[in-house]
Task: inverse folding
């Protein structure tokens, strides 16, 4: 599974953009539900887009199965097993993508708040992000999970980086 994820990421041209979106997220927060809802919609849209290469591979597998069924017949085709595997792969991809984003978010808070000695906000933000990451194990409603998290996180203000990309 990790090797498959690495293959997908290696050809993923939008990875840097998704990382930048998660990195800039604290600057979008202003304590309002409207800002949180807009941010969550954007993030889940990015998660959805990130699954496209996997969906394309899965579509090719379905086509190959359909061609085999046309030649040999339906009996024992493995259609149901393939559909179940595809659902599991998409779920894992979404979870991995959310974990990736939460890790970027946690790092942003750590890098921003630790040098200022703002340990109370750092601990609160880190605890909230870690709790959201742990909750992914229970296959939660992603929208509600992210909204609850973002409502708890403090906004961060920072001038835009000259390169336009977050530091590695």
Result:
């Amino acid at each position: 599974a990790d090797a498959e994820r690495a293959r997908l990421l290696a050809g993923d041209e939008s990875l840097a953009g998704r990382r930048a979106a998660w990195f800039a997220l604290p600057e979008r927060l202003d304590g309002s539900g409207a800002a949180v809802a807009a941010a969550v919609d954007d993030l889940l849209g990015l998660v959805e887009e990130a699954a496209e290469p996997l969906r394309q591979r899965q579509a090719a597998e379905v086509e190959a199965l359909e061609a085999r069924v046309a030649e040999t017949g339906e009996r024992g085709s493995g259609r149901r097993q393939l559909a179940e595997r595809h659902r599991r792969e998409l779920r894992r991809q979404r979870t991995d993508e959310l974990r990736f984003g939460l890790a970027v978010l946690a790092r942003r808070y750590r890098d921003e708040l630790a040098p200022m000695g703002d340990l109370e906000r750092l601990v609160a933000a880190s605890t909230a992000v870690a709790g959201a990451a742990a909750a992914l194990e229970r296959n939660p409603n992603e929208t509600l999970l992210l909204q609850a998290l973002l409502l708890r996180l403090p906004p961060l203000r920072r001038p835009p980086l000259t390169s336009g990309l977050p530091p590695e």
